[in-house]
Amino acid sequence: MFGRAYTSLLALASVIQAVPFSSRLHKNTALVLIDVQNDFITGSLNNSRAPAILPKIYQLLDDHEWPFIAASQDWHPIDHVSFASAHPGKESGDSVNITFLDTPTKIETQGFRTPVNYIKKAQNHSVDSCSAFADNQYHQFTTLDSELSLHSIETLVITGLITNACVRGTSIDGIKLGYEVILIEDATETTSDEAKATAITELEGWGVQVMNLTDWEAAYPTSSKARRLLEL
Fold first, then answer.
1. CATH code assigned at 152
2. What residue stretch is flagged as signal peptide (predicted)?
């Protein structure tokens, strides 16, 4: 079921175009989908909690229009320094100066059919990357910030996987770069309630606005929704 839902999500998102004068358009606001890919849902780093966020992401895509939609892709090369498989004798979870991971998506595998404006991260095999803006050491930056600037984006609405890693890194970097950052709490997940709560508390400390989708839609109505409310 969730595999079909994910495939449908990609098919839907791949043809979405923001309509500049649409009454459903959130002006100067970008929807940012973090690592919504098979590997972190049902694949090698599967998470049983992840599929629950897909209906919320559908809703953000179906019911809203955006001047810019970005989708980050975890794009580690096969010999990436963070993979246990690149270090004989090490296992997933072991740590030296980094924490080793199971090998997630490799280039051109099924996990990379992510839609819209692709932001590839973690391509440098020597440095890991959580944020969709830059690697963890800020040695290399992706194109995300420049593309947001080109589209006059001021606000980021962030969703995806996982809350305490790549969602966290992207949200914090968004704040550092001067964006208003909104995290849709029920459109992001991680491996436990405790990990998610800890991450959200930290992000709120950075100035990230955290709200569920219903509250966000009420706080940031499009003009068409506002008209319907006035007519009630």
1. 3.40.50.850
2. 1-18
Cα–Cα distance, 88 to 83 (Å, whole number):
10
Q: pLDDT band for 146, please (50, 70, 90 cuts).
A: very high
Residue 37 neighbours by CB under 8 Å, 6+ apart: 43, 73, 74, 105, 111, 112, 113, 114
More confident residue, 26 or 122: 26
In this structure, are residues 147 and 117 in contact, taking their beta carbons and an 8 Å threshold? yes
CB atoms within 10 A of CB 185: 20
Least confident of 38-47, 60-69, 155-164, 212-221: 38-47
- The answer to the question of residue 1 being in a domain is no
Q: Is residue 11 part of a domain?
A: no
d(CA 74, CA 19): 28
Distance CA 132, CA 35 (A): 9
pLDDT in tens, 194-225: 999 999 999 999 999 999 999 999 999 986 55
Query: Looking at the domain assignment, is residue 23 inside a domain?
Result: no
Domain of residue 71, residue span: 29-76+103-230
Domains: count for the chain: 1
